[in-house]
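Q: For a teaching session next week I want to show students how multiple molecules come together into a single three-dimensional assembly. I've collected the sequence lines for a complex. Could you give me the predicted structure tokens for the whole thing so I can convert them for display?
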Amino acid sequence: MIIKRNAADMAVALASGETSSVALTQAHLDRIAEVDKDVHAFLYVDSEGALAQAALADKKRAAGEKLSPLAGIPLALKDVMVQKGIPTTCGSKMLEGWRPPYDSTVVSKLRAADVVILGKTNMDEFAMGSSTENSAYGPTHNPWDLSRIPGGSGGGSSASLAAFEAPLAIGTDTGGSIRQPAAVTGTVGVKPTYGGVSRYGLVAFSSSLDQAGPCARTVLDAALLHEVIAGHDPKDSTSINAPVPAIVSAAKSGNVKGLKIGVIKELQGEGYQAGVLNRFNESLELLAGLGAEIVEVSCPYFEYALAAYYLIAPSECSSNLARFDAMRYGIRVGDASGVSAEEVMNLTREVGFGREVKRRIILGTYALSSGYYDAYYGSAQKVRTLIKQDFDKAFLKSDVLVSPTAPTTAFKIGEKADDPIAMYLNDIATIPVNMAGICGMSLPSGLADEDNLPAGFQIMAPAMKDDRLYNVGAALEAALLSKWGAPILSHVSGLGAHA
Amino acid sequence: MAGISRDDVANLARLARIDMAPAELDHLASELGVILNAVARVQEVAGQNVPPTSHPLPLQNVYRKDEVAPSLTPEAALSAAPASEAQRFKVPKILGEEA
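A: Of course. Below is the structure for the complete assembly, covering every listed component.
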């Protein structure tokens, strides 16, 4: 089945004429029609638009035009990224029915590379959550076990990959929303260096932490997609004006001989599932066997990262989400003669926002309010400095740092829905990367002993050294594949006869 | 650390322009108390001598050239407005009758 191949192999099939982009796109649309009623990875499927893009890619190929490596390959787009004329909800009632009048830079770059956009994927409302249960349109189900979460906030993107509904997806990562979903679905996800991929047209949650990045089934596929979407953008003032690191060649090299790999002491032990740690330690042994030097490093301030994150992200969110004021776009509630604009705003925001979004807006409003600002937001900003310093010191002793991506495998839908703190702990190992603005990758390290569900291995590298993620990731991926004999996703078990 | 009262939450909801129902205020007051206790830990290590970090990049403000570039037409900009009139966003009244 062609849909089970990797994007790089699909590209070979297109280049050789074995298949066309229209046929490949149709195969994915058929797959979505077959399994998405169970998975619910997509909020909107743009069959017509996707087939038109595919036909255009085929036409360019037939005319002998020079094409990008991913030309004609289908992709799933997280619903937080705007695409002109296509419904964009961010998983919120607030934006129900909104069709953006412009393309995000990521979408413009995908179009320029002739990548085929299949549709928009489900997510926690405004990217706030770790399970995709906070979507106003219902949860996404993990293809490994439909009663479990696919991670979040980008659970639609990760589930679409594991269910073979798309070979590539775009995610966004504010505290782990690309990497944790990748970990719990047995897929690969990369949070690029902050500023590495344009945020223009990415609906803002926490502007100093948000970063879009690639999701895929292999390290090389992620690198190919990363290269398409990365680069300086004059429309994003926080975009880094420097060449994109050589990520694709790094993903093709995968040589860790002599590399120093630092294991972060604080990101293991208590709170981490035994099976997740077993797979993590096996991966370390494989890397050591390939010639890497494993060293232990300490990042003592990481234990404060979660607390600082849940002040900084809500503070920025309370400010960013003020734009949903019922005046220029989105829903408007209670507009009747004699009702003031302020009352309409109050009514609209009460109806339009879900529970977690309101919780964070109120928390952020508190943290930024006069009299509490220094104690909360101000202190969190100082912790951010301490975390950056921990990373700086650790990178003096190692080329990359590693940890398990998430402390556990996928939990049951509903299990943590009423316990915000338990939910927040999912991101304990991914948040420090966002706080420091560096880059991180999650790739599958195997199935946990307890539950036969995927566990994730996280690699972290300094800012603008994204190529190191791909180099180490490719080496580990190859070693694991030769150990397993087949890709981890060949064991996806939740789709019954559709597997 | 002091808890957070229902009145505190009502005031925050007013500042954040969210018209919360009484039951929602009660629920949030108890939840926020728990969350604030957890996040207040940042104060343990936020000493006077630690500089704050607001952003991962040491950026100065970035300006673009003052040149006309393609932009949305008025029709496109207004296309998603809940209400519009004469190429403008139409909003509910913002001032009282007396003003």
